[in-house]
Write a structure and sequence with these properties.
14-stranded antiparallel β-barrel, 5 helices, elongated
Amino acid sequence: MLYIKNGNYKGIIMKQLSTALSIIAISISLPSYADSFTARHMGQGFTSLTHDFTSSISNPALLTKFDQDDDFYLSLNIGVRASDEYEVIDNGEDIADELEVLEDEINNLTNLAPGQIPAAQADLHQDVDELVAKLEAVDEKPVQLGIGFNALMIIPTNTLSSGLFVNQYGGVGVVIDYDDVDETTLDDAIDDLTLVDIDDLATSAIGVGYNIVEAGLMFGYQAVKSDAYDLSIGTKIKFQRVDVFYNNIGISDFDDDEFDITDDEFLTDNDGVNLDLGLYVNWGDERQWSFALIADNILSQDVELVIADPSIDNINLSVDLKSTIGVGYQQEWFSISAELDLTDRVGFKELSAPKYASVGAQVNLGEHMQLRVGARTDLNDVEDDVVTAGFGLSPWDVFSIDVGAFTGGNDNVGIAVQLGLKI
């Protein structure tokens, strides 16, 4: 996952990128919550490795952790996240609209009576000053948007539990790169009574994004069952497609619809088969203690997006091995869990990636309602800390709805909703 903390992103970027890509100080987050993006995980501090078989999309070894009356499980989940502390999207669109008006007024100066021109020029210079102030306010301020979706179907058995899954996550980061030469261009056009074309301005908006889609089979097997402990192993065999997107548009065209992530001119993709492995161990008189280990993306995958502009380095996204451990403690009415990344998250090669430590808790209010809280910090000090909360409703332990949310620095917020059916 790629994220540059707002307080120090310029220094980090300038050190790591040597070309015009250095102005892309955008907080695009690849995995973390994106790689499962489920409401229950989000509400419980993004922990999931030691939960139960409904969380097997995070750890396939959990396919063996089910009740004997569980024969089938179906789940649909969608989540979104956003961070736009400086309201770059709204301000950028307002700036584009104001530029169109300014262009018309500058180009209309020669149609005024000679005696009206000096006053009109003074007003237009003031308009330029106000426009420049707005551009400087959003210059190199990152905005992030992300979305995730997953669906899974599980058939648990006492021999070999199995399931089907589809998992999608992605994000787009946008930053405005203000060039102060535009102020001179506009002022000179006003003074010289020359025509101006705002499409020729140097200020631009740059977007970088990704989309990862995975679909496949997962299997879980209880390898050891003893008086002292139980041990399960699991695997996910998946088809994985990775898309990387880059676009650079003039400020006069700034609009969220202009960043077309489906145009082959602006994206590249790579696909192949990949493999995830999981381990789950529980022990204690009531099997209340648990330990988990996962290794995702056993087969590394790199995607390079070639940028047509020779002044900008190509963009390289790496999907490398991600390993995480987790521990948990569970009683009838509550559970707690903690997880620690052993490796950095997936991310762009040119930029730092985070490594997380997370903790979460769940309280069961009777049999049909759950409350969740949690927190996550980045050990690499790339991301801001976040706090999470959520709840679940599971009437008759058949239907379920879960909602999770988080908030962090720089107006970073997210929410996910999950629907489940268990029979």
